[in-house]
Amino acid sequence: MDDLEVCMRCGFCRASCPVFDETLAESGTARGKIAIIHALLQGELEPTETVRQRIFECTLCGRCAQSCPAGVDTTEIFIRARQELLGKKVPLLKRAAFNVLERPKLLSLASSAASLIPERLLSVPEKSAGAQLQKIEDPEMRVLFFGGCLANHMLPGLKDASLEVLARNRVEVIAFAGKCCGAPLYFSGAPERAERLARTSLDLVAEVEPDAIITPCPTCRIMLRRYPLLLEGNYRKRAERAAERTYEICEFLATFGYEKDFQPSTGGERTVTLHESCHGAFIPGHGKTVRDIIRGLPEVALKEMDDPSACCGFGGLFLLDNPGLSKRINRKKLDDIKRTGAEEVVTPCPGCTVYLRETLKREGIDIKTRHPVELLRETYQRAGRTK
């Protein structure tokens, strides 16, 4: 972990850290965590449960890395620390989550049971229109659709919208990937379990040989492009080839182009506000890409919130480790959303979608939560470009 020595202890990370903003504890900052990790490596600290909690008290939003004047890759440091120092001490609840994430049937069952939980953390799965693979004559591209856990099991409407938008742009989806990408396991200190999921995904890629791999989830996109770091030998070579052609769906549309010759709006505009994805910040120009899609829609007016890139508190399995802290971080995001007066909050992250949808509902705030692709699909429908 050479970056440990690069950290100047300047404290710039304090201003951008959602955890420190709530706890005001030095251990909540990147600087504080780096000091803890350094002490562990030097044998000055023992990896106690309290120390483990401090390391996992992080959403991995990456804002500290973005604000670091020395360019320290804090996210990678914290992932490595979880894996190398504390990865074997995963709590029982998180181990149960790992088992569910590794098994699609269990994940589907757990998602369906969400409606039975009074104080649930995430929203109840929505109904799907049942979009199927559609043969396209002379397609521009043939792609594998990697829905990830949430688009496949919690947000099938997002999957439906994605397939329709791709079809209308002459992109043929030739297969679905139904398993988890492995990110929650990898980021939580279980790389060996993430490796198994990575190999399964790469086996499917080798089987269908797509021109590209498209996911509606920025976290899946980040993880799929990390596969070469996880694997060795032939699987690493396959992972490198797959990483080169993996795109988040908004990124894909911006890169290869999409139909946007829309008819002028005949109705009143509705206002939306954008909540940026934390992991979307790791995709070059992603914030601008999403805004360009939204601003190009004739019936939608974008009203920015004060801090669109602030974490919503979800953070994947951070929610399981720190439910109280997650709610406190989320409260600030909800207040920011309300101040805009928008009718809908748009986010390119399925995880943020299900968390914001549930917390907005819990607080009695009548604001819908949507993915940009769902707005694009609706615009196509109004223009008569979808079935």
Summary?
With 387 residues, this protein is of the alpha/beta class. 50% of the residues lie in helices and 9% in strands. The chain has helices spanning 3-6, 18-23, 30-41, 49-56, 63-67, 74-84, 92-101, 104-112, 148-153, 156-168, 183-187, 191-208, 218-224, 227-230, 233-244, 249-256, 286-295, 318-321, 323-340, 350-362, 372-382, and strands at 141-146, 171-177, 212-215, 246-248, 270-274, 300-302, 344-346, 368-370.
Query: Averaging pLDDT over every residue, what do you get?
Result: 88
Number of domains: 3
Which geometry do the CA atoms define? globular
**Low-confidence runs (pLDDT<50, min 5 residues)?**
115-120
CATH topology call of the largest domain: Glutathione S-transferase Yfyf (Class Pi), Chain A, domain 2
CATH classification, class level of the largest domain:
Mainly Alpha
Topology readout:
Elements: H1 3-6, H2 18-23, H3 30-41, H4 49-56, H5 63-67, H6 74-84, H7 92-101, H8 104-112, E1 141-146, H9 148-153, H10 156-168, E2 171-177, H11 183-187, H12 191-208, E3 212-215, H13 218-224, H14 227-230, H15 233-244, E4 246-248, H16 249-256, E5 270-274, H17 286-295, E6 300-302, H18 318-321, H19 323-340, E7 344-346, H20 350-362, E8 368-370, H21 372-382
Parallel strand pairs: 1-2, 1-3, 3-4, 5-6, 5-7, 7-8
Helix pairs in contact: 3-6, 10-21, 12-15
